[in-house]
């Protein structure tokens, strides 16, 4: 085969990294390259959650099932063949031995029903999540693969392994980013990620709500800025320092007051995402500086049940706690629960004793410190 032909096939293989459906174009080239009747790429999820199958030529269900069992169970063979490392190869000779291959159990049960004479199988992917293999086969009217054919395939198979490894890593990273975005989006804290000059690269739902309200923060031409002109410079400097990786030595963050015309306003905590040891917990999201803003006017989802279990509260005490932590007075709590005010006060005294608090304000403060910052949906 001409070098430029192999180069064309390698290029087609790497096209499949971003567009897996391109295997439908690459596999016919691979089949022709090995003078094969059919070829396939099979990727399976280790947890049985599905996978991908790309085939060219004859339908290969029996052979596919065999390699699936081989990878999963290391079934005993005439010759020891292990699919332990990416790049490991299994051929007909390896699988059934050199004598009477057409009388072997493997040939009779797995190869002959498909009308195949010979097969080359390569383990091309083995990650924590997935396993995959590549195979080429020759029909029963063709000759067996030779050592020369094996050497020819050895030039191509490393590229198939590398393409699938890159594709797998990209897919897992996409899943990782999606899950991180979902988790960050559930927080009641507004989170903005920015780059140079305060350009916003990411924000969660709580941050979008702050911008929509517009009383303390605004977006001007895609850049984060304070709503009031007298605080814009302070926020701008904090963002610039954070983008450059600089932050106050002790706290690691800039605390910027953001007063509003309607009241006291909020405080923004601005920090670089790569600082000190260079660890960035949000590395898979775009941005080099982060702005955190908590709006106390939007309550968290209080973990009343978990809090009650932590301090050993009874079911009745938990119900009273649920009303008190929502800001209701004892009389309101009694009215809604349909019990007497004395009963509510008795439950409160028991809750105070179990939580080592002495008054309602202390109890609420303790509860809020135990509350995850999740937004109310």
Element string (H = helix, E = strand): HHEEHEHHEEHEEHEEHEEEHHHHH
Low-confidence parts lasting 5 or more residues at pLDDT below 50? 73-80
Helix content: 40-55%
Q: Beta-strand percentage?
A: 15-25%
Overall 3D geometry?
elongated
Q: Strand count, sense and closure of the main sheet?
A: 5 strands, antiparallel
| Structural class category | alpha+beta
Q: In DSSP terms, counting alpha (H) and pi (I) runs of 4 or more, how many helices?
A: 13
Please tally the β strands and state the result.
12
First-to-last CA distance: 62 Å
Describe this structure in words.
Helix content is 43%, strand content 21%. It contains 13 helices and twelve strands. The chain has a five-stranded antiparallel sheet with strand order 2-1-5-4-3, sandwiched between helices. The chain has a five-stranded antiparallel sheet with strand order 7-6-12-11-10. Strands 8-9 form a two-stranded antiparallel sheet. A hairpin with a 2-residue loop joins strand 10 (254-260) and strand 11. Helix 10 crosses helix 11 (330-337) and helix 11 (330-337) crosses helix 12 (341-355). The chain is elongated, with a radius of gyration of 32 Å.
